[in-house]
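Students often ask why inverse folding is considered easier than folding. One informal answer: many sequences map to the same fold, so there is more than one right answer. In these notes we will look at a single instance of the problem. The structure comes first.
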Protein backbone atom coordinates (compact mmCIF):
# COMPACT_ATOMS: atom_id res chain seq x y z
CA UNK A 1 0.00 0.00 0.00
CA UNK A 2 1.26 3.46 -0.84
CA UNK A 3 2.05 5.60 2.16
CA UNK A 4 0.13 8.82 2.63
CA UNK A 5 2.34 11.45 4.29
CA UNK A 6 -0.65 13.03 6.05
CA UNK A 7 -1.52 9.70 7.68
CA UNK A 8 2.09 9.11 8.69
CA UNK A 9 2.16 12.43 10.53
CA UNK A 10 -1.26 11.92 12.12
CA UNK A 11 0.09 8.56 13.28
CA UNK A 12 2.84 10.40 15.15
CA UNK A 13 5.72 10.28 12.65
CA UNK A 14 7.93 13.28 11.97
CA UNK A 15 8.72 13.91 8.30
CA UNK A 16 11.58 16.16 7.14
CA UNK A 17 9.20 17.62 4.53
CA UNK A 18 5.81 18.01 6.19
CA UNK A 19 2.65 17.14 4.30
CA UNK A 20 0.80 20.24 3.15
CA UNK A 21 -2.77 21.20 2.33
CA UNK A 22 -4.75 24.41 2.84
CA UNK A 23 -7.96 25.08 4.68
CA UNK A 24 -10.64 26.03 2.12
CA UNK A 25 -8.30 25.02 -0.70
CA UNK A 26 -11.26 24.64 -3.07
CA UNK A 27 -12.90 27.98 -3.63
CA UNK A 28 -13.23 31.36 -5.22
CA UNK A 29 -9.52 32.22 -5.43
CA UNK A 30 -9.35 29.60 -8.23
CA UNK A 31 -10.69 30.64 -11.66
CA UNK A 32 -11.65 27.05 -12.42
CA UNK A 33 -13.81 27.01 -9.25
CA UNK A 34 -15.55 30.24 -10.24
CA UNK A 35 -16.37 28.69 -13.60
CA UNK A 36 -18.15 25.71 -12.03
CA UNK A 37 -19.73 27.94 -9.35
CA UNK A 38 -21.23 30.25 -12.01
CA UNK A 39 -23.37 27.38 -13.29
CA UNK A 40 -24.79 26.61 -9.83
CA UNK A 41 -27.56 28.83 -8.57
CA UNK A 42 -27.95 27.42 -5.11
CA UNK A 43 -24.89 26.78 -2.88
CA UNK A 44 -26.50 23.96 -0.84
CA UNK A 45 -27.62 22.20 -4.03
CA UNK A 46 -24.06 22.61 -5.36
CA UNK A 47 -22.65 20.92 -2.22
CA UNK A 48 -25.16 18.08 -2.72
CA UNK A 49 -24.33 17.57 -6.42
CA UNK A 50 -21.69 14.81 -6.27
CA UNK A 51 -20.30 15.35 -9.79
CA UNK A 52 -19.86 19.10 -9.37
CA UNK A 53 -18.59 18.79 -5.78
CA UNK A 54 -16.08 16.09 -6.77
CA UNK A 55 -14.84 18.27 -9.63
CA UNK A 56 -14.12 21.29 -7.40
CA UNK A 57 -12.62 19.04 -4.69
CA UNK A 58 -10.10 17.77 -7.25
CA UNK A 59 -9.24 21.16 -8.80
CA UNK A 60 -6.67 22.23 -6.18
CA UNK A 61 -5.13 18.73 -6.20
CA UNK A 62 -4.57 18.88 -9.95
CA UNK A 63 -3.16 22.38 -9.75
CA UNK A 64 -0.88 22.04 -6.71
CA UNK A 65 -0.54 18.37 -5.77
CA UNK A 66 -1.48 18.89 -2.11
CA UNK A 67 -0.96 15.93 0.23
CA UNK A 68 -4.62 15.99 1.18
CA UNK A 69 -7.92 16.63 -0.46
CA UNK A 70 -10.87 17.91 1.62
CA UNK A 71 -14.31 17.03 0.35
CA UNK A 72 -16.22 20.01 -1.01
CA UNK A 73 -19.19 20.52 1.31
CA UNK A 74 -20.10 22.96 4.07
CA UNK A 75 -20.57 22.89 7.83
CA UNK A 76 -24.10 24.26 7.34
CA UNK A 77 -25.25 21.08 5.56
CA UNK A 78 -26.01 19.64 9.02
CA UNK A 79 -28.63 22.31 9.90
CA UNK A 80 -30.03 21.93 6.37
CA UNK A 81 -30.20 18.14 6.77
CA UNK A 82 -31.77 18.40 10.24
CA UNK A 83 -34.62 20.37 8.67
CA UNK A 84 -33.69 24.02 9.26
CA UNK A 85 -34.02 26.51 6.41
CA UNK A 86 -30.50 27.53 5.23
CA UNK A 87 -29.62 29.75 2.28
CA UNK A 88 -26.71 31.87 1.08
CA UNK A 89 -27.24 35.54 0.24
CA UNK A 90 -24.85 36.38 -2.60
CA UNK A 91 -22.03 38.52 -1.22
CA UNK A 92 -23.37 38.31 2.34
CA UNK A 93 -22.85 34.78 3.57
CA UNK A 94 -25.13 32.23 5.17
CA UNK A 95 -28.64 32.90 6.44
CA UNK A 96 -30.75 30.52 8.54
CA UNK A 97 -34.24 30.69 9.98
CA UNK A 98 -33.18 30.85 13.65
CA UNK A 99 -34.09 27.91 15.91
CA UNK A 100 -34.64 27.67 19.66
CA UNK A 101 -34.71 24.54 21.86
CA UNK A 102 -38.50 24.49 21.28
CA UNK A 103 -37.78 23.51 17.65
CA UNK A 104 -35.87 20.36 18.63
CA UNK A 105 -38.76 17.94 18.02
CA UNK A 106 -38.92 18.89 14.35
CA UNK A 107 -35.19 18.43 13.73
CA UNK A 108 -34.25 14.89 12.77
CA UNK A 109 -30.91 13.04 12.84
CA UNK A 110 -32.29 10.37 10.50
CA UNK A 111 -33.39 12.96 7.95
CA UNK A 112 -29.94 14.59 8.13
CA UNK A 113 -28.25 11.28 7.42
CA UNK A 114 -30.43 10.69 4.37
CA UNK A 115 -30.22 14.27 3.08
CA UNK A 116 -26.41 14.26 3.30
CA UNK A 117 -25.90 10.93 1.54
CA UNK A 118 -24.76 12.79 -1.63
CA UNK A 119 -21.64 13.92 0.28
CA UNK A 120 -20.66 10.26 0.66
CA UNK A 121 -21.16 9.88 -3.08
CA UNK A 122 -18.81 12.84 -3.66
CA UNK A 123 -16.22 11.11 -1.46
CA UNK A 124 -16.51 7.90 -3.51
CA UNK A 125 -15.98 9.83 -6.75
CA UNK A 126 -13.01 11.74 -5.33
CA UNK A 127 -11.45 8.63 -3.80
CA UNK A 128 -11.51 6.89 -7.18
CA UNK A 129 -9.77 9.85 -8.86
CA UNK A 130 -7.10 10.74 -6.27
CA UNK A 131 -3.43 9.81 -6.53
CA UNK A 132 -2.62 6.93 -4.16
CA UNK A 133 -0.49 9.09 -1.83
CA UNK A 134 -3.14 11.81 -1.43
CA UNK A 135 -5.20 11.53 1.75
CA UNK A 136 -8.91 12.28 1.68
CA UNK A 137 -10.41 14.37 4.49
CA UNK A 138 -14.07 14.42 5.48
CA UNK A 139 -15.38 17.09 7.85
CA UNK A 140 -18.16 18.59 9.88
CA UNK A 141 -18.54 21.74 11.92
CA UNK A 142 -18.23 21.25 15.67
CA UNK A 143 -21.57 21.45 17.49
CA UNK A 144 -20.85 24.83 19.10
CA UNK A 145 -19.93 26.54 15.82
CA UNK A 146 -22.87 24.96 13.99
CA UNK A 147 -25.22 25.88 16.86
CA UNK A 148 -24.12 29.53 16.73
CA UNK A 149 -25.29 29.73 13.10
CA UNK A 150 -28.51 27.85 13.94
CA UNK A 151 -29.37 30.12 16.87
CA UNK A 152 -28.14 33.46 15.53
CA UNK A 153 -29.59 32.86 12.05
CA UNK A 154 -26.22 33.47 10.40
CA UNK A 155 -22.71 34.58 11.19
CA UNK A 156 -22.38 36.97 14.12
CA UNK A 157 -19.66 39.08 15.63
CA UNK A 158 -19.62 37.80 19.19
CA UNK A 159 -22.20 34.98 19.26
CA UNK A 160 -23.98 36.80 22.09
CA UNK A 161 -27.39 35.24 21.51
CA UNK A 162 -25.95 31.71 21.47
CA UNK A 163 -23.92 32.34 24.64
CA UNK A 164 -26.93 33.86 26.41
CA UNK A 165 -29.05 30.83 25.49
CA UNK A 166 -26.34 28.44 26.73
CA UNK A 167 -26.46 30.22 30.12
CA UNK A 168 -30.21 30.75 30.39
CA UNK A 169 -31.45 27.36 29.17
CA UNK A 170 -28.66 24.84 29.76
CA UNK A 171 -30.97 21.84 29.37
CA UNK A 172 -32.42 22.96 26.06
CA UNK A 173 -29.09 24.18 24.78
CA UNK A 174 -27.21 20.98 25.65
CA UNK A 175 -30.00 18.94 24.01
CA UNK A 176 -29.47 20.94 20.80
CA UNK A 177 -25.71 20.31 21.04
CA UNK A 178 -26.30 16.58 21.50
CA UNK A 179 -28.59 16.52 18.49
CA UNK A 180 -25.96 18.23 16.30
CA UNK A 181 -23.28 15.89 17.69
CA UNK A 182 -25.36 12.78 16.97
CA UNK A 183 -26.14 13.93 13.43
CA UNK A 184 -22.41 14.65 12.96
CA UNK A 185 -21.39 11.20 14.22
CA UNK A 186 -23.65 9.48 11.67
CA UNK A 187 -22.54 11.87 8.90
CA UNK A 188 -18.81 11.50 9.63
CA UNK A 189 -19.02 7.71 10.01
CA UNK A 190 -20.71 7.61 6.59
CA UNK A 191 -17.93 9.80 5.16
CA UNK A 192 -15.28 7.39 6.45
CA UNK A 193 -17.17 4.40 5.03
CA UNK A 194 -17.26 6.23 1.69
CA UNK A 195 -13.49 6.67 1.66
CA UNK A 196 -12.41 9.49 3.97
CA UNK A 197 -9.05 8.64 5.63
CA UNK A 198 -9.31 11.43 8.19
CA UNK A 199 -12.05 13.64 9.57
CA UNK A 200 -11.76 17.23 10.71
CA UNK A 201 -13.98 19.12 13.15
CA UNK A 202 -14.13 22.86 12.50
CA UNK A 203 -14.82 24.89 15.65
CA UNK A 204 -14.37 28.26 13.98
CA UNK A 205 -16.05 30.16 16.83
CA UNK A 206 -14.28 28.55 19.79
CA UNK A 207 -12.87 31.95 20.82
CA UNK A 208 -14.22 34.22 23.52
CA UNK A 209 -15.75 31.56 25.77
CA UNK A 210 -15.38 31.60 29.56
CA UNK A 211 -13.91 28.34 30.91
CA UNK A 212 -17.18 26.74 32.06
CA UNK A 213 -18.80 27.36 28.67
CA UNK A 214 -15.71 26.21 26.79
CA UNK A 215 -15.88 22.93 28.69
CA UNK A 216 -19.63 22.55 28.14
CA UNK A 217 -20.02 23.67 24.54
CA UNK A 218 -16.64 22.89 22.97
CA UNK A 219 -14.96 20.07 24.90
CA UNK A 220 -17.98 17.97 25.91
CA UNK A 221 -19.68 17.78 22.46
CA UNK A 222 -16.33 17.22 20.69
CA UNK A 223 -15.63 14.36 23.08
CA UNK A 224 -19.12 12.99 22.34
CA UNK A 225 -18.34 12.95 18.60
CA UNK A 226 -14.93 11.27 19.01
CA UNK A 227 -16.39 8.66 21.39
CA UNK A 228 -19.38 8.13 19.10
CA UNK A 229 -17.14 7.50 16.10
CA UNK A 230 -14.94 5.08 18.05
CA UNK A 231 -18.04 3.26 19.34
CA UNK A 232 -19.05 2.69 15.71
CA UNK A 233 -15.64 1.18 14.97
CA UNK A 234 -14.41 4.26 13.09
CA UNK A 235 -10.67 4.46 13.78
CA UNK A 236 -9.81 7.30 11.36
CA UNK A 237 -7.71 10.10 12.87
CA UNK A 238 -9.65 13.20 13.94
CA UNK A 239 -8.18 16.69 13.52
CA UNK A 240 -9.73 19.22 15.90
CA UNK A 241 -9.66 22.95 15.09
CA UNK A 242 -10.71 25.03 18.10
CA UNK A 243 -10.04 28.36 16.41
CA UNK A 244 -9.09 31.15 18.79
CA UNK A 245 -9.18 28.91 21.88
CA UNK A 246 -5.80 30.21 23.10
CA UNK A 247 -4.64 28.43 26.27
CA UNK A 248 -7.94 26.48 26.40
CA UNK A 249 -6.60 24.51 23.41
CA UNK A 250 -4.35 22.59 25.82
CA UNK A 251 -7.38 21.24 27.68
CA UNK A 252 -9.09 20.60 24.36
CA UNK A 253 -6.13 18.45 23.22
CA UNK A 254 -6.06 16.53 26.50
CA UNK A 255 -9.76 15.95 26.99
CA UNK A 256 -11.54 15.61 23.64
CA UNK A 257 -9.72 12.54 22.31
CA UNK A 258 -8.80 14.22 19.01
CA UNK A 259 -5.74 12.80 17.25
CA UNK A 260 -4.31 16.12 16.13
CA UNK A 261 -4.68 19.80 16.87
CA UNK A 262 -5.08 22.43 14.13
CA UNK A 263 -3.73 25.77 15.37
CA UNK A 264 -4.79 29.22 14.21
CA UNK A 265 -2.29 31.96 13.37
CA UNK A 266 -3.02 33.92 16.55
CA UNK A 267 -1.71 31.14 18.77
CA UNK A 268 1.72 31.87 20.29
CA UNK A 269 4.01 29.41 18.50
CA UNK A 270 6.79 29.12 21.10
CA UNK A 271 4.31 28.77 23.92
CA UNK A 272 2.33 26.11 22.03
CA UNK A 273 5.52 24.17 21.38
CA UNK A 274 6.29 24.20 25.07
CA UNK A 275 2.89 23.29 26.47
CA UNK A 276 1.69 20.75 23.91
CA UNK A 277 3.11 17.23 24.14
CA UNK A 278 5.94 16.56 21.63
CA UNK A 279 4.05 13.56 20.36
CA UNK A 280 0.82 15.44 19.52
CA UNK A 281 0.45 16.00 15.76
CA UNK A 282 -0.05 19.70 15.07
CA UNK A 283 -1.34 21.47 11.95
CA UNK A 284 -1.22 25.15 10.95
CA UNK A 285 -0.56 28.20 11.49
CA UNK A 286 0.27 30.32 8.46
CA UNK A 287 -1.63 33.61 8.40
CA UNK A 288 -3.94 33.65 5.33
CA UNK A 289 -3.06 37.36 5.04
CA UNK A 290 0.63 36.62 4.50
CA UNK A 291 -0.32 34.14 1.80
CA UNK A 292 -2.37 36.94 0.22
CA UNK A 293 0.65 39.28 0.54
CA UNK A 294 3.19 36.84 -0.91
CA UNK A 295 6.84 37.69 -1.54
CA UNK A 296 9.53 37.80 1.11
CA UNK A 297 6.98 38.10 3.94
CA UNK A 298 5.43 34.80 2.87
CA UNK A 299 8.81 33.09 2.56
CA UNK A 300 9.80 34.33 6.02
CA UNK A 301 6.66 33.06 7.68
CA UNK A 302 6.88 29.68 5.97
CA UNK A 303 10.48 29.34 7.16
CA UNK A 304 9.58 30.42 10.70
CA UNK A 305 6.88 27.75 10.97
CA UNK A 306 8.96 24.99 9.35
CA UNK A 307 11.76 25.79 11.79
CA UNK A 308 9.50 26.07 14.85
CA UNK A 309 7.74 22.76 14.23
CA UNK A 310 10.77 20.81 12.89
CA UNK A 311 11.31 17.58 14.78
CA UNK A 312 7.60 17.21 15.61
CA UNK A 313 4.72 15.55 13.78
CA UNK A 314 3.60 18.61 11.81
CA UNK A 315 1.21 19.27 8.92
CA UNK A 316 1.80 22.51 7.04
CA UNK A 317 -1.41 24.54 6.68
CA UNK A 318 -2.99 27.94 7.16
CA UNK A 319 -4.28 29.17 10.52
CA UNK A 320 -7.72 29.71 8.90
CA UNK A 321 -9.28 29.48 5.44
CA UNK A 322 -7.57 30.88 2.34
CA UNK A 323 -8.78 34.37 1.46
CA UNK A 324 -10.66 34.69 -1.82
CA UNK A 325 -8.33 37.47 -3.08
CA UNK A 326 -5.28 35.20 -2.86
CA UNK A 327 -3.34 35.04 -6.14
CA UNK A 328 -3.05 31.37 -7.15
CA UNK A 329 0.69 31.93 -7.86
CA UNK A 330 1.26 32.59 -4.16
CA UNK A 331 0.06 29.07 -3.41
CA UNK A 332 2.53 27.78 -6.00
CA UNK A 333 5.30 29.69 -4.26
CA UNK A 334 4.22 28.23 -0.90
CA UNK A 335 4.29 24.68 -2.27
CA UNK A 336 7.76 25.12 -3.74
CA UNK A 337 9.11 26.55 -0.49
CA UNK A 338 7.53 23.94 1.81
CA UNK A 339 8.68 21.13 -0.46
CA UNK A 340 12.16 22.68 -0.57
CA UNK A 341 12.34 23.13 -4.36
O1 LIG B 1 -11.71 23.30 0.20
C1 LIG B 1 -12.55 23.42 1.09
O2 LIG B 1 -12.22 23.50 2.28
C2 LIG B 1 -13.98 23.49 0.67
C3 LIG B 1 -14.97 22.92 1.60
C4 LIG B 1 -15.47 23.89 2.67
C5 LIG B 1 -16.38 24.98 2.45
N1 LIG B 1 -16.73 25.47 3.68
C6 LIG B 1 -16.88 25.44 1.15
C7 LIG B 1 -17.45 26.81 1.03
C8 LIG B 1 -15.22 23.82 4.04
C9 LIG B 1 -14.26 22.89 4.78
C10 LIG B 1 -16.03 24.81 4.66
C11 LIG B 1 -16.09 25.00 6.11
C12 LIG B 1 -16.87 26.11 6.67
N2 LIG B 1 -18.04 26.65 6.20
C13 LIG B 1 -16.57 26.73 7.90
C14 LIG B 1 -15.41 26.35 8.82
C15 LIG B 1 -14.11 26.84 8.34
C16 LIG B 1 -13.91 28.33 8.50
O3 LIG B 1 -13.65 28.95 7.47
O4 LIG B 1 -14.02 28.85 9.62
C17 LIG B 1 -17.54 27.72 8.13
C18 LIG B 1 -17.60 28.66 9.32
C19 LIG B 1 -18.48 27.65 7.05
C20 LIG B 1 -19.72 28.45 6.87
C21 LIG B 1 -19.70 29.25 5.63
N3 LIG B 1 -19.81 28.71 4.37
C22 LIG B 1 -19.59 30.64 5.52
C23 LIG B 1 -19.44 31.60 6.68
C24 LIG B 1 -19.62 30.93 4.16
C25 LIG B 1 -19.65 32.30 3.54
C26 LIG B 1 -18.35 33.00 3.68
C27 LIG B 1 -17.38 32.57 2.63
O5 LIG B 1 -16.26 32.16 2.94
O6 LIG B 1 -17.79 32.69 1.46
C28 LIG B 1 -19.71 29.71 3.45
C29 LIG B 1 -19.74 29.54 1.97
C30 LIG B 1 -18.71 28.63 1.38
N4 LIG B 1 -18.39 27.39 1.85
C31 LIG B 1 -17.96 28.88 0.20
C32 LIG B 1 -17.17 27.74 -0.02
C33 LIG B 1 -16.22 27.51 -1.16
C34 LIG B 1 -18.07 30.13 -0.67
C35 LIG B 1 -19.41 30.20 -1.29
C36 LIG B 1 -19.42 30.34 -2.79
O7 LIG B 1 -18.60 29.75 -3.50
O8 LIG B 1 -20.32 31.04 -3.25
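Output (designed amino acids):
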Amino acid sequence: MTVKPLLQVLGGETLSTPPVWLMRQAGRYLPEYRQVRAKQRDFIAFCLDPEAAAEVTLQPIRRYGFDASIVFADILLIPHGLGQKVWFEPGEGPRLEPVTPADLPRLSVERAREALAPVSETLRLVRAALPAHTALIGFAGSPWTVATYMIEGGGSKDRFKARALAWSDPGGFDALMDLIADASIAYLADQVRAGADVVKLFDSWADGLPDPLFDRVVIRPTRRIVDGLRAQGVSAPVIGFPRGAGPQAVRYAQQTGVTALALDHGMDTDWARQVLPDSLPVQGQLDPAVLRAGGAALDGEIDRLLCAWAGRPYVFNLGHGIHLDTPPEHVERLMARVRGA
